[in-house]
Specification:
The strands form 5 sheets. A 7-stranded antiparallel sheet has the order 1-5-6-9-14-15-16, covered by helices on one side. A 3-stranded antiparallel sheet has the order 2-4-3, with no helix packed on it. Helix 1 packs antiparallel against helix 6, helix 3 packs parallel to helix 7 and helix 6 crosses helix 7. It is of the alpha+beta class. 33% of the residues lie in helices and 28% in strands.
């Protein structure tokens, strides 16, 4: 999943606590082996290679996760879409670098991107693509799922206080550290990487952040970020970052991208359909380094 995971945990038995944290990291590794599109041997990579040829039977966990991801696509009107894999490659974000595709290339890409191309058979647990060249990229949601799975492992092993972070972009606070009401986590300033914009408190809650500063390149005076609008096949402009507070890392991971793509106005109606969710938009500000808009369900 192309990021480092970190866990801070408290417990009365140091030896048992270390084993619990190790088990949580093992769970993250398992999710990476299952859902990585960088590893050619992963079940997701096999699905990407074969699903345009016919239905592919896959593991129940992966099938259910892809089905949930497609639900976020439908609910967001396509703003969040796991079929952005071809766009990430075309714009040079898959292995680093960066390039601007030609207009004919973008037109062709738009025929291969869209969650409607993914056809699920719930009875047989098979998935097929209805168009050649379709490819799934779970990078926009799998990190949050891996955080949730690590938290579940810790809970099942009796750990009551832990902070699990996926590269800082998705963080879940389990319980609270000793003597504190919650975990305090800083949200990065979208312009100054060494500064914090503000601090949130997490107690059995997740923080997910999607920022244009994570991966970007400049061409002819225009900065292009890695966050794609699947509907236009182009990187989103006019948003610096979006931070989301939600019940799970999976939900937050999907929503921060969806809100980023939809923008403030369109996200207002979307967030009203959700429960216990907050979104913080960091936008370029006139005469300021940024301005913030807060939405709440």
């Amino acid at each position: 999943m192309a990021c480092a995971y970190a866990i801070v945990a408290y417990g009365d038995d140091g030896g048992e606590l270390a084993l619990s944290v190790e088990a949580a990291f093992d769970e993250v590794d398992r999710i990476d082996r299952l859902m990585s599109h960088y590893k050619p041997e992963s079940p997701l990579s096999r699905l990407n290679r074969e699903a345009a040829l016919g239905p592919v039977a896959i593991d129940t966990e992966l099938f259910d996760f892809i089905a949930e991801s497609l639900r976020y696509s439908r609910d967001s009107g396509g703003a969040f879409d796991i079929t952005v894999g071809p766009l990430m490659k075309a714009w040079g974000f898959f292995r680093g670098g960066g390039r601007v595709p030609s207009a004919p290339e973008l037109m062709e890409l738009r025929h291969r991107v869209g969650y409607g191309h993914v056809v699920l058979n719930a009875q047989d647990k098979t998935i097929r693509f209805d168009h050649p060249g379709v490819e799934l990229d779970l990078g926009g949601i799998a990190k949050g799922y891996a955080v949730d799975r690590a938290v579940a492992v810790l809970r099942n092993r009796g750990v009551a206080a832990a902070l699990v972070s996926a590269g800082g972009s998705t963080v879940f606070g389990l319980g609270a550290p000793p003597g504190e009401p919650a975990w305090e986590v800083s949200v990065q300033d979208p312009v100054d990487p060494g500064a914090a914009a503000f601090t949130v408190r997490l107690r059995d809650r997740a923080l997910s952040v999607s920022g244009s500063y994570e991966k970007s390149f400049e061409k002819d005076g225009v900065t292009y970020s890695h966050i794609m609008d699947p509907r236009t096949a182009r990187p989103v402009q006019g948003v610096l970052s979006v931070a989301v507070l939600s019940a799970t890392g999976t939900e937050g991971d999907a929503l921060d991208d969806a809100f980023f793509v939809k923008g403030v106005a369109a996200s207002q109606a979307y967030i009203e359909r959700l429960q216990a969710t907050e979104a913080f938009f960091f936008l370029p500000g006139p005469g300021e380094k940024w301005r913030m808009v807060r939405l709440k369900s």
